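Form 7-S
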Amino acid sequence: MEQEIKKILMYLPRHTAEKISALLASEPSSTRYITEIRLHCRRPTSVSMGGRNILLFSGETDICTYEEIASTLAKLTEDSVHTYSETLKEGFISLEGGYRVGVCGSANTADERIKGLYDLTSLCIRIPRAVTGVDGAFISKICRQNIIDSALIFSPPGVGKTTLVRAVAASLSSGTSARRVSVIDTRREIYIYDMFKNSIADFLSGYPRAAGIEIATRTLAPEAVICDEIGGADEARAILSAQNTGVPLIATAHGDSAADIARRPNIKALLDAGVFRYLVGIRRGGRDGKFEFDFTDTRDNER
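Output:
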């Protein structure tokens, strides 16, 4: 069984962990990897695996109580839920090793701001994966004659953008041709020790993307900056400022197509400024889940 799954099963209700373990044991190794586990109060538990959302375990559903949901979150945070109060307001917590847990419940609000959560109803546990060798075609495209080209990677949620940028960051910052890479790890889900133990990448963990990009370009002399899920106005301003330093950016965004991405005002401003050389759509091919890439060279439009 994958080490990443073993770590999480320890924190789940016993009946849930047993059902997921049995499911994994019944699956071929090529499709065995779970990307998400979703616990729902008084509704079915589900796992996302091999492009499927599975609700039945040997023909049965798994149901968690409110108390089990709250207990699972307490175990995941080592009984220190209060230390995650700020990110809980944004609907998630991040754990060591790149795990991210989406948290749903009732919001306590004031002046249109979320002050806290209560009566938790579901947890979405995203499982990170230390994957190497998935970025070869991407790296060979953006690295030419010792030059790194900037790229914006896009796909719908759940395809593997974070898995890919993690592998790209590790590849660029390791080995005999290691580059100085700054990773803005806002949600603390990119860094996995086993992937970066021989890397010279610098991680700005928990930094807002805009602040992290500005700090990295000003103080760390990176040869490339990598960050996940851009799209806000503050981020666009920081990226435009960093563009003046000539540091290439490799980032991700949610989107179905290059046309969809290019219509968004903040990203359109970046494209108009020539920030990204490539728009890169990704998808998973076949049952083996290998990445497939669709490259759009934005400079083709300038010719």
